[in-house]
Amino acid sequence: MTACVASVAAVPASADVPLYKRAGAPAEQRAEDLLKRMTLHEKIGQMGQVAVTRIQGDCEWSGGALNETCMKTVLGDYAAGSILSGGGMPPASNTPKAWAELVNAVQKYAVENSRLHIPVLYGVDAVHGHNNVLGATVFPHQIGMGATWDPGTVEDSAAATARAVAATGIDWNFSPVADLSRDQRWGRYYETYSEDPLLAGTLAASTVKGTEQANGAKEVAASVKHFAGYSEPFNGHDRAPADVSMRYLQDTLLPPYKQAIQAGAKTVMVNSGAVNGVPATASTYLLTKVLRDQWGFKGVAVSDWEDVRALQTRYKIAADYPEAIALAVNAGVDMAMEPYFAKDWSEGLKAAVDRGLVSERRINQSVKRILALKFELGLFENPYVDPAKADAAVLGTDKDLARKAATESQVLLRNEGGTLPLSASAKKIVVAGSYADDINNQVGGWTIGWQGVPAGVKIPGTTVLKGIQEAAGAGTQVVHAKTADEAVAQAADADVTVVVVGEKAGAEGPADNPRPELTADQQALVKSLKQTGKPVVTVVLAGRPLVLGDAADTQALLMSWLPGSEGGHAVADVLFGKANPGGRLPVSWPKALGNDPLYYQQLPGTNGGPESQYHALYPFGAGLSYTSYSFDGITLDKPSVRAGDKVNLQVKVSNTGSRDGDLVVPVYVSRPTSDVLAPSRKLVAFTKVHLKAGEQQTVRLTVRPNVLAVTPGDIDGAGTQRVERGAYTFTAGEKTAGLTVR
Ligand code: GLC
Fold first, then answer.
1. Quick one: which of 58, 371, 639, 724 is 20 to 30 A from 171 by CA?
2. Residue 350: in which H helix or E strand, if any?
3. What separation in angstroms does the CA of 432 have from each of 465, 472, 485, 502, 614?
4. Candidates 170, 305, 309, 340: which one to mutate for ligand 1, based on the most atoms within 8 Å of Cβ?
5. Pocket of ligand 1 (CB under 6 A)
6. Please, what's the largest Cα pairwise distance for the chain?
7. Is pLDDT above 60 for 6?
8. 461/742 Cα distance (integer angstroms)
9. CA dihedral 601, 602, 608, 611 (to 10 degrees)
10. 640 touches 727 (CB < 8 A)
């Protein structure tokens, strides 16, 4: 369906023009005015979000061309306020132009067939580039972006993604994830930025800013997800319940969401899981007391996939659907991603109102937020984009930025005997491993399809093998060994073997892995290559640290995460020394299986076992470079501050080597004694600086009081967060400085 339409002309402000039609009026006032003109049926429809497959083809799962009959049902009869393409769900042909035509057509139908001509919000998961669209540049997944420790690169990448998303007519991106990666078994580990609340929150905030300030063809709203506590499934399996203390919730889990929301996020997506026995979707504590009353969030809270119905069918805290809807709406859900049946949603919420379970006042509150969002995004004046511009705006755009991000994300963890960078005079390099030439597993899940690139679909991109082949000098033979035997045979007269290992693409529960380790065949391959006596470089393409076994002590080890379509160039740039690796682990790397969850902020215990303490193969923040650095000093502006004051400090760092490089400068805090248990160190500030060879710089950093605050009191965690008085030690590198909080 082709709909190439101009934007709707803004209506001039004049007395007989309804306020809601006045483009210059404040969004909240326009929403208030429009709300008054709506029927209850129309209001209820605004709170429903439906999957696009329900208005394509067979109106269930077939996809394909839009189907007018089911568009009438979903957008006409039941006036759904939003449509989403969840985990793929492309138009009949997966091109940017076809996406723009699809979204325009959905928008046009909604605007022309609703009594008050209300446009829809269209949502998508563009979580590493506009990843559902064939031919779009695929960025590194969040875990790799976390390894950059670079808010600027993260913000730029989010802005590039938002511009691509907007070019296809989409105005809502379900990104960033502000959950924490603390359990390597969890299938969504790679969708997070870090195990650390400050690193994760800072980068999530950068993503919000990049997304919502991208200045693309349309405004795009970000969605901070999955609020809250989603990343703590008790057994490491996705959406398994979490049981956490109020202290852990308040001091560790909530801060990254708060930081991202305070960056201006227009929406929040709710955690599918339960926390302390209550599904987040039904939690008034989370969705009203914390999100609204404490944090002052004014945007839209959307539930996750079919989670309102889950209150009845999975969690069994509601006897029927109207009751489930009432629990969710009264807790604070504004829009329900009830993706299958617009009719059920409409009739269910109406029944809840008729039973007196939900007030129209509560409905008005949500609908006003939804309408205000639509006014803020300019959808009433600019509901459409020009499909003719979409291909040029999406296909292969921002490759350089994606390559820069992927390169910055590379974390060099071992480099014995200067194996890397590879010598330009190398005569023969063997590239082995089943992931060496596998773009689909290199980009990971949430690419074209929910679980990753579907079989038979070919996406553009550069694999590690191709990257090495392009980067190698003319005198260097690059051999791709497709089997272990071939790799061993070819290694005999090679200078070095690069073995690329990893894990299969996947998403959510299907990507859970109770044994996050290199498979036996991968370990056997590495072992056989080590036995050749030639240097072995292990490159890991995975969304989480894998227990390495035999690969743990190869001469070199490079963690490349899921580096995206430009990842092959990024890996090759580091291997050949064109780029000096600057990535640092945003997570902890386990030495052995069975110690999940593993994170550096583990609290002290009295347990005596060798693996009971923080037992990482590589700790949070680890990473090597082709140059060397020194942390020369840390000084605090004041030796003491009042509780609640910022702490200003400066750190002196030097590049003591022979190559320019980018250095992450983290500052940690520790407590000689504390009122409640404190981790041995906690990240409280960081930056990243470029240092020329031999250069020394002094960087200034500020530690915000909320980063030092803890929940005092007893096991019940009933206290209010505050900065404890007493002694603090700030550390940068090996240098320390003492502070007294009075
Ligand atoms: C999924 C995910 C969520 C995503 C949504 C729409 O189940 O939990 O992250 O945004 O559905 O695709």
1. 58
2. helix 342-354
3. 9, 16, 10, 12, 33
4. 305
5. 84, 86-87, 125, 174, 225, 272, 304-305
6. 86
7. no
8. 56
9. -90
10. no
CA distance readout (Å), 449 to 99, 444, 671: 15, 10, 47
User: CA of 132: how far to CAs of 113, 207, 209, 389, 552, in Å?
Assistant: 28, 18, 22, 18, 35
Pairing status of strand 726-732 against strand 661-670 = antiparallel
CA-closest candidate to residue 430, choices 523, 503, 492, 521: 492
3-state SS assignment for residue 654: strand
Mutate to test the pocket of ligand 1, among 174, 307, 451 (most ligand atoms within 8 A of CB): 174
Residue 75 CB: number of other CB atoms within 10 A? 26
Known catalytic residues? 304, 508
Amino acid at 597: P
Which residues on neighbouring strands pair with residue 270, listed in sequence order? 227
* Total residue length of the chain: 742
Distances (CA, A) of 711 to 212, 287, 518, 715, 723: 33, 20, 39, 10, 9
**Does the structure show a pLDDT above 70 at 3?**
no
d(CA 323, CA 40) in angstroms, rounded, equals 18
Q: Express each pLDDT in 419-442 by its tens digit.
A: 999 998 999 999 999 999 999 999
pLDDT at residue 1, rounded to an integer: 37
Please report the pLDDT score of residue 611 as a whole number. 83
Domains defined along the chain, listed by start: 23-393 (3.20.20.300), 410-618 (3.40.50.1700), 629-741 (2.60.40.10)
Ligand 1, closest atom to CA 223? Answer: 10
Parallel, antiparallel or unpaired: strands 640-641 and 629-636: unpaired
Residue 607 banded pLDDT, cuts 50, 70, 90: confident
189 closest CA partner among 505, 543, 451 = 543
| Token output for 682 | 């906690």
Quick count: other Cβ atoms within 10 Å of Cβ 689?
17
Write the single-letter amino acid at 78.
Answer: Y
The sign one gets for the Cα dihedral 488, 491, 496, 500 is negative
Q: Locate the ligand 1 atom nearest the alpha carbon of residue 86 and give its number.
A: 12
Q: Which regions of 433-554 does DSSP assign to beta strands (E)?
A: 477-480, 496-502, 536-541
Centre of ligand 1 to C-alpha 464, Å, is 30
Which residue's CA is the nearest one to ligand 1's atom 1? 305
Ligand 1 atom at minimal distance to the Cα of residue 269: 10
pTM: 0.97
d(CA 252, CA 711): 10
Give the residue carrying structure tokens 């008005």. 364
By the 8 A CB rule, do 288 and 332 touch? Answer: yes
Q: Which two tokens stand for residue 543?
A: 């969304």
**What are the pLDDT digits (tens) for 513-538?**
999 999 999 999 999 999 999 999 99
The confidence band for 575, taking pLDDT boundaries of 50, 70 and 90, is very high
Q: pLDDT (tens digit, 9 = 90+) per residue, 701-738?
A: 999 999 999 999 999 999 899 999 999 999 999 999 99
Both tokens assigned to 266:
């227009």
User: CA 340: distance to chain centroid?
Assistant: 25
Q: pLDDT-based confidence at 4, cuts 50/70/90?
A: very low
Quote the CA–CA distance of 104 and 123 in Å, as a whole number: 13
Given a cut of 80, whether residue 555 has pLDDT beyond it is yes
Distance 10 CA to ligand 1 centre (A): 34
pLDDT band at 409 (very low <50, low <70, confident <90, very high): very high
Percent of the chain exceeding pLDDT 70 equals 98
Backbone angles phi, psi at 98, to 5 degrees: -70, -35
Residue pointed to by tokens 């603390």: 182
pLDDT digits (tens, 9 = 90+) for 471-502: 999 999 999 999 999 999 999 999 999 999 99
Alpha carbons 37 and 638: distance in angstroms, whole number: 59
Nearest-CA residue for ligand 1 atom 11 is 305
Report the separation in Å between the CA atom of 583 and the middle of ligand 1, taken as the mean of its atom positions.
Answer: 28
